[in-house]
Design goal:
Distance between the termini: 52 Å
Shape: globular
Low-confidence stretches: 7-12
Structural class: alpha+beta
Strand content: 15-25%
Largest sheet: 6 strands, mixed
Strand order of the largest sheet: 4-7-8-9-10-11
Number of helices: 5
Helix content: 25-40%
Length: 220
């Protein structure tokens, strides 16, 4: 059985890239339960293995909480699928975002558990947290899969990017899926100092959002 060793103090690297890996081997590695602790990204023979750091997970979880709290308060239907593995066997590509959501297409996929990107729409929103590595190559995979919107946390700022007709991404001030929301406005509520009270920071975001959008969800 092929497995990926768990990270230890003697092996602190959180990222490894392998080349020349057949699609069949990638699928075999991905399907082994003992490998579920490892994030895998595959692109035509290039396999990236990542064991997320606590710093990465801290920002990822907070970003997800803000999205889910905001859409809950505003009664916006979403379908949250976390780190779901999205495969494109024909193109030999696969990715696992930090967080992903259906928003515009929520009703279309509501209750669905199995997805085929040849038939089903990709998630409407993907979140990428860049703490120790760049997500540039992942952006290529998202574009190939047709993901309409990506949020990237990079250099301590959260930004939104919209996919163009050519599959490239351009930065947008407001979220294409949540057009009333200036995405950078979430940045002050993301993790800062290690001594912060997480619940208090999230509650402050809730107070801010309720005050700002008390009249509903105006368009940008």
């Amino acid at each position: 059985m092929a497995t990926v060793p768990k990270r230890t103090k003697a092996a602190p690297r959180d990222r490894m890239v392998l080349h020349g890996i057949p699609w069949e081997l990638y699928e075999a590695l991905r399907d082994v339960q003992d490998n579920w602790h490892v994030r895998m990204t595959y692109d035509r023979g290039r396999l990236e293995l990542m064991s997320p750091s606590s710093k990465h997970e801290r920002v990822k979880k907070r970003t997800g909480r803000l999205i889910e709290l905001l859409t809950l308060d505003l009664r916006i239907p979403i379908y949250s699928l976390g780190e779901t593995t999205w495969k494109q066997p024909r193109l030999k590509k696969a990715f696992e975002a930090d967080e992903c959501y259906y928003i515009r297409n929520e009703e279309r996929v509501r209750g669905q558990l199995d997805f085929d990107l040849e038939v089903d729409p990709p998630p409407d929103l993907v979140v990428e947290i860049e703490v120790s590595r760049s997500a540039t190559r992942r952006m290529h995979l998202y574009g190939s899969a047709g993901v309409p919107e990506v949020w990237r946390f990079k250099r301590s700022v959260l930004r939104a990017y919209e996919r163009t007709a050519t599959g490239e991404y351009i930065e947008r001030e407001f979220s294409p899926n949540l057009p009333f929301l200036r995405v950078a406005d979430l940045t002050p509520f993301l993790p800062a100092g290690l001594g912060e009270n997480e619940t208090a920071r999230v509650a402050a975001f809730q107070d801010w959002a309720r005050a700002k959008f008390a009249g509903g969800t105006p368009s940008a």
